[in-house]
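Ticket #4471: structure export looks truncated?
Reporter: QA, pipeline team
Priority: medium

Steps to reproduce: submit the single chain below to the structure queue and open the exported record.
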Amino acid sequence: MNEPAASTPPGAARSQPLMSIGEVLAQLRVDFPDVTISKLRFLEAEGLVEPQRTAAGYRKYSWDDVSRLRFVLAAQRDQYLPLRVIREQLADRDAAGASSGRQRPALVAVGPGGEVPGRAAPEQPVESAQVRLGRVDLVARSGIAESTLVELERLGVVVSDPPGWYDGDALIIARAVAGLAAYGLEPRHLRGYRTAADREVGLFAQLVAPLARQSDPAAQARAAETARELAALSQQLHAALVRVGLRSTLGR
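Actual output as written to the record:
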């Protein structure tokens, strides 16, 4: 079966042959290079897309299915929305019908500050965990001093893995530390953050480990998604508790 051209509009689905999961993957990877077949199966298992099945059980996707997948992937990549919020938006999108023209996920404010789940600094895109930076690059891109990086590593706040190389999360941490330093906070003040994070890791690992141990790719994808949502919820909880704690100081 020939793969439909990427420029074919979703509305032309009825006049186009259905696509295999491999063909859909090729379509989506143009804009979402990290998407995998396991991810597509996971989104199906979560009820976010429902491809047709042949008599032999093979998945067949329409252009509407591809449009739906683009909506979900964009919501996760650009707005860090949890699946429950994406599911609600898809339901609204379906209820409005294709004539609404709504092809993009809506930004959702989940707190008084308008923060989006899982994103601490909307103006800076989250770096991929696959990023590899050398020590000099990490210092230059984060704005911290070399001596600060040494102290962060001593405290276990930043970890190089493999030695001498840092991932995107290390860059996010270093940038946050640089921002806090502008208000007078020093690395030694961050011991509590490391301790609290370790406690959460232990707690969440108990929830994710049963899925992660399974050999089924769909279960492993669900484990990764569960970890992402737990981290987002934890961030929301922490931010809300800090706001509540500061109310008396702010006189509110």
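Status: closed, not a bug. The export was complete when the record was re-opened. Leaving a note from the reviewer for reference: The chain is about 55% helix and 5% strand.
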